[in-house]
Structures are given as C-alpha cells and as structure tokens.
Amino acid sequence: MTALPEERFPSRRSRTGPSLCHDGAFVERPLTMREVTEDDLPELVRVDQEAFPDDPYPYFVLRQLCDLHGDCLLVLEDGKSLHGYVLYVTTRDGYRSWIVSLGVTRDQRGRGLGRRLMLEVLRRLRGEDVREVRLTVEPANAAAIMLYRSLGFSSDEGVRHDYFGPGEDRLIMTLGL
Ligand SMILES: CC(C)(COP(=O)(O)OP(=O)(O)OC[C@H]1O[C@@H](n2cnc3c(N)ncnc32)[C@H](O)[C@@H]1OP(=O)(O)O)[C@@H](O)C(=O)NCCC(=O)NCCS
C-alpha cells in the first residue's frame, strides 16, 4: 500500500519501533502511516485495549467504525504490528471534524507517534477545507492535553460534566483551521 504524503517529511524524532531480531538484540523497524484495512482489526483491537485499558471499544464497534469510516482511520505500523491509530469523522456539511479516538501503544509513547498521527489528520482536513476540529479529553489526561495544546487546540468551552454519562466529565477542545 502507498505511504501517505507525510512520510516524505520524517519527524525529527525516531520514526521507528523496536523489535527483537534472531539474536535477541533490538532492531529498529521504520513506521509507515496508512489507512486501516479489514486485516488490521485484531491488531487494532489490541492497540485500542492497550491505549484505553479501562474502557476499550468492543470488537464489534471497531469493526463497524472500520466499515463506516476506514478512510478516516489511520494506523502506524512497522510491517508486523500496529503501534498507534487515530480516527476522525467529519460532519455531513463538511464544516467540522471530530477526533474520535487517538491511541499509541504504551511502549511507543513519547516518541512522536501521537503528534505524527494528529499532524496528518490536520493536513488532510485543511486540504478538505474543513473549518474546525473538535475533540473531547479526560480533564486529568495531561499528556493528551499537552499534545492538543501544542497543536493549537484551545479549551474555551471548558469541562462538560457527565458528557459521556454519570461521572464521565470531558474537556472540549477546539481548533480553527
Ligand atoms: C496521548 C497519546 C496519544 C500521546 O501520544 P505520544 O505518541 O506518546 O505523544 P508524542 O510523543 O507524539 O508527544 C506529543 C506531545 O504530547 C505531550 N506529551 C506526550 N507525553 C507526555 C507526557 N507523558 N507528559 C506530558 N506531555 C506529554 C507533549 O506535549 C509532547 O510534545 P513534546 O514531545 O514536543 O514535548 C498517548 O499518550 C496515548 O495513547 N495515551 C493513551 C490514550 C489516550 O489518552 N488518548 C487520547 C485520548 S483524548
């Protein structure tokens, strides 16, 4: 499958994920970003469970998200395993897009993968003339909030109480494109 255009602009940080080679040493595999395929489902479920251990999507939900929005679900893979994914969905009028989910496996965090996924989404949305991007994030999720702020998202709307049901408050963040 063809790599996405952002692959032409490697991140200044590591673009690779570690893996064990035959003699037990760690080798680096280059990471590629691409749209999800049906064959990715088991891996996608694994990555989602690792990213959201307390509240992962059920298999059937991820299956249906892939069927409905697979062209907006990007994965980072090393040729063997997936290491992260992002899903965004744009409203029918094309005005606003929501980042529905973003997750990176625990062992790959802090290596620029989350930023890479988000930058590719924003690049695509700008090209599609989408005007605004929104997302929700747990108010205590400092790493995610720092990432979104560094990309220009603001949280003027503040926290919405019980947004995802009782006790599930979420900070709403917005970026104008
Ligand atoms: C949030 C998440 C996607 C970030 O992915 P990542 O690949 O680790 O992030 P990156 O390495 O690209 O870092 C991007 C920025 O995020 C922020 N960040 C990342 N990890 C951080 C940490 N532990 N503490 C504070 N800020 C952090 C920094 O601003 C960082 O930029 P910098 O490295 O230039 O300082 C990842 O931690 C994750 O999957 N968490 C579990 C699932 C989740 O919370 N998803 C978001 C739901 S809204």
Automatic annotation (TrEMBL):
Database matches in Gene3D superfamilies: 3.40.630.30
InterPro entries: AcTrfase_GNAT_prd, Acyl_CoA_acyltransferase, GNAT_dom, YpeA/RimI_acetyltransf
Highest taxon of the lineage: Bacteria
Ranges for domain N-acetyltransferase: 31-177
SUPFAM superfamilies linked to this entry: Acyl-CoA N-acyltransferases (Nat)
CDD domains recorded: NAT_SF
The entry's keywords: Acyltransferase, Transferase
Protein name: GNAT family N-acetyltransferase
Species whose genome carries this gene: Streptomyces lannensis
